[in-house]
């Protein structure tokens, strides 16, 4: 970046939500003679391209924010990080529209055509084997993200042979087998999730948390999240309202990948249940993808810490970009590795 571009970046960083006119006014003071509208627009476009900043809104309502230096952000202790809001952001819906741009969607759509071609050419037996493989790897990694200590080989033996790993808590086996039950359900009834409802989310949560001493239905109590000062809603009526708002929001979105990404992020953000929210979010995301004939994700290669960083950035800053990268990379991996 040249000095002017760096000045623009630093201004936006210090003044989140800056408009173009605010940027122009600032640059005119420190760089007189080098502040024409086309020049500033080119500089802003360069910063957007290099992912130094991102924008929200459109036209005259466009505002700019500096992107987060993730490593520097998490080097700060949780109690010292400055959150966009420590509570649920009721205005978040405008921020999560267009999380995937047209170029990204076109690239992912092209990949998905390969997935559709592949499954159309598989014999019933081969398709069954691939679904089983994805189910095992999804159950393993989704459980591992939640702290489950089963290995992939242990998970395979548990699902295929019903043999539990020695030395592991019974609840870990239940968690994994519940994943299989939930995945079987969404594969058996994919069209059920073309239209999402709160009741369908609750049902998937019930499948995932059965026999784990986790309360069913919308929670009635306050919960905390390890490693962050973000506090989800604690009023049952507001939680229900947020979940209903989410289902309407997802149903209005046009693209299946946008729908799935919104589901994974927002079910996790709302935290509608006593426990099991993120595993429910991942499973609902896959249910939506299957409903529209898109490749489901196993998350097999994702690093659990990076996944959690992506979630924490969304909780604390409503910044979806880090998790979006994880989501799209896992989609690409799934198309390449399965079916």
UniProtKB/TrEMBL annotation:
<dbReference type="InterPro" id="IPR036597">
    <property type="entry name" value="Fido-like_dom_sf"/>
</dbReference>
<protein>
    <recommendedName>
        <fullName>Fido domain-containing protein</fullName>
    </recommendedName>
</protein>
<dbReference type="InterPro" id="IPR040198">
    <property type="entry name" value="Fido_containing"/>
</dbReference>
<feature type="domain" description="Fido">
    <location>
        <begin position="196"/>
        <end position="329"/>
    </location>
</feature>
<dbReference type="InterPro" id="IPR003812">
    <property type="entry name" value="Fido"/>
</dbReference>
<feature type="binding site">
    <location>
        <begin position="275"/>
        <end position="282"/>
    </location>
    <ligand>
        <name>ATP</name>
    </ligand>
</feature>
<feature type="site" description="Important for autoinhibition of adenylyltransferase activity">
    <location>
        <position position="146"/>
    </location>
</feature>
<keyword id="KW-0547">Nucleotide-binding</keyword>
<dbReference type="Pfam" id="PF02661">
    <property type="entry name" value="Fic"/>
</dbReference>
<keyword id="KW-0067">ATP-binding</keyword>
<dbReference type="GO" id="GO:0005524">
    <property type="term" value="F:ATP binding"/>
</dbReference>
């Amino acid at each position: 970046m040249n000095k002017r571009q760096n000045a623009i970046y630093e201004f936006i960083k210090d003044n989140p939500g800056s408009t173009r006119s605010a940027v122009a006014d600032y640059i005119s003071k420190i760089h007189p003679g080098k502040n024409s509208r086309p020049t500033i627009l080119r500089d802003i476009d360069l910063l957007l391209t290099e992912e130094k900043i991102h924008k929200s809104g459109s036209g005259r309502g466009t505002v700019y924010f500096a992107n987060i230096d993730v490593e520097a952000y998490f080097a700060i202790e949780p109690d010292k990080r400055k959150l966009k809001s420590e509570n649920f952001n009721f205005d978040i819906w405008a921020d999560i529209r267009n999380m995937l741009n047209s170029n990204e969607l076109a690239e992912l759509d092209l990949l998905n055509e390969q997935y559709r071609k592949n499954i159309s050419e598989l014999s019933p037996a081969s398709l069954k084997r691939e679904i089983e493989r994805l189910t095992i790897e999804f159950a393993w990694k989704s459980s591992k993200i939640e702290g489950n200590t089963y290995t992939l080989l242990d998970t395979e033996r548990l699902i295929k042979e019903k043999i539990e790993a020695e030395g592991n808590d019974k609840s870990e086996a239940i968690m994994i087998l519940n994943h299989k039950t939930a995945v079987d359900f969404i594969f058996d009834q994919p069209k059920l999730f073309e239209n999402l409802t709160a009741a369908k989310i609750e049902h998937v949560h019930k499948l995932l948390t059965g026999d784990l001493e986790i309360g069913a239905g919308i929670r009635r109590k306050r919960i905390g999240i390890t490693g962050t000062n973000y506090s989800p809603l604690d009023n049952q009526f507001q939680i229900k309202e947020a979940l209903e708002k989410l289902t309407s929001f997802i149903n209005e979105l046009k693209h299946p990948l946008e729908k799935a990404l919104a589901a994974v992020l927002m079910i996790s953000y709302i935290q509608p249940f006593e426990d099991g929210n993120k595993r429910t979010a991942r499973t609902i995301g896959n249910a939506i993808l299957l409903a529209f004939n898109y490749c489901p994700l196993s998350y097999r290669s994702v690093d659990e810490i990076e996944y959690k960083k992506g979630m924490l950035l969304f909780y604390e800053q409503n910044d979806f970009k880090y998790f979006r990268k994880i989501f799209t990379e896992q989609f690409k991996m799934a198309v390449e590795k399965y079916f």
